[in-house]
Each structure stands twice: as structure tokens, then as C-alpha cells.
Amino acid sequence: MEQWLWGIDLGGTKVEGVIMPAQGDPKPLVRTRIATETSRGYDHVIDRIRELVEKMKAGSGLTPASIGFGTPGELDPILGTMKNANSVVLNGRPLQKDLEAALGVPCVLANDANCFALAETHWGVVRDRYPDARVVFGVIMGTGVGGGIVLDGRAWNGRHGIAGEWGHNFLDDSGGTCYCGKTGCVETVLSGPGLERFYLSRSGRPARLPEIVSSGDPVAVETLDRLYHFFGKALSVVTNLLDPDVIVVGGGVGNIPGLYTEGVKSLAAHIFNNRLDVPVVPPSLGDSAGVFGAAALNLRHAIP
What we know:
single chain, Nucleotidyltransferase, domain 5, 2 domains, 10 helices, 36% helix, globular
């Protein structure tokens, strides 16, 4: 009998579910989504997830043995409550406990960056190009900056549940104040909004990131050169500490081609080694990575 993996990606605007095979190509049996409706509160979000699971059951004729959840923020491993979620209705709430009570099955939670790294490890670019990789660092650079660690096929959450959160390491004072209360975080410098703020400060003209990337004007060039420099500098800290076999870069900022040339040169210049061997690559699963990674949490060797 084929084993099916159930995964749910819990986002601020949508909650998406997938049922996919445990082995082989990631071809979902069911993939569906509904609006999260977070503005209606925490209890309503739980109800929406229950509705989605019932919809998945009806569409597949299956019942899950367990469900993996990709979440914004992290589940505190000591307190059992959510923290650091931009969907603020989740913060301080015992999400895993409440989901298990509502759904009647074990639930495994990991943040969206860990799910991204898991998906690319088990079904994406790592499996296809670097199948012997044991340590994978997954980067998400978009509205925010996050990271996830996969060790021997398992998402690694860490003692505080914040393993891989390089976005809130200090990088440079020029990034300004971060929402976390600190100054100069990686996220303030390398995120899409951070790049747009820098461009505005230098040009006096607002512009969205795609325009900055394509325009070629002197301030745009300066903005991108600054991105490449600090990308390598920030990632060198991760490389020195973790020394991963592969680094996968996702998110909207991760689509900028220069990261894989000039950004990698900056990384090579900043790490504590006489050369750079770790490949820094774009993902292959696109917007499927989050929900596929949530399903991968159910793999026996992937459950934290």
C-alpha cells in the first residue's frame, strides 16, 4: 500500500493542503487551498484548517495518520506556544496542541524556512543535483529573511526553536531598526523592503525591487552591489558555523541573478577558508516548496 503524506502550509492569507506520495516524484494526489481569514481570530483559523482537512479527506477518500504543518514563526519547544509569527493571532497560542485536539491526529510543526529546506532536500534541487548532501541550509529572502537547516534529512529546530534564523543576526547599522527591536539585522539590509528603503534613501525616488533590478541607473547599481557585498558577508557567518554541503536560496530576492555570481564571490572573500566549495543555488520547486516541505515533516526520518 502506498504511503501518503499530508501537509498544510499555514499562511497569513491562505492555508494550503497537499497529499503526496512518500517516494518518487512529488505528484500530489490532492492539492487545494482556502482563505485563512486571520482577521477573524485564532479560533477561526483553527476552524478553517479543520474545514480544509475535511475537504482533503473528501477529495481523496483517505484519512491522515499525521499531518505536517508549515507555520509562520516557530513553536517554542519548551513552552509549546507559538512565537515570532507575522500572523500575530498565533503568537502565544498552543497551536500544535489545539490542532491535534481539533483534527484528532498527531501534528508536526516547523517554520516555513525549514519546510522550504526540507522540500528542496527530498524532492527538489538537492535531491536532483547533490544527493549525497547531509547538511542543507535553506535561505528565504523576500519580505523578510529567514533560514532553515536540514541535517541528514531532518529539519533541525534547535533548543529555542530558532535554528537557522540568520535574518536576525547583526549585519550592518545602515539597515536601521528592525521590527524585532534590534538594529542592523540581516533582514533590514537584505530583504526586499530593505533594498527598496536603501534605494529611496539614495535616490529620493521610491521604486519596487523588480524596477531596481532592471533599471540599471547608478543608484540601482549601487543598491545591487551593496546587496551582493552584504549577502556574502552575512552568509559567511552561517558558512563558518555550519559549513553546509549546499545552500539553497529562495524568495523574491533570491531570483536576482547576481547573487549567484557577485554574491558568491563576496561569500568566498569572507569565509574562513582559502576557497569556496559549497554550491549556492536557486530552488527548483517554486511556490510548491512550502506545502511539500510540510508534507515531508511526516517522513519518519524528517520528524524533529
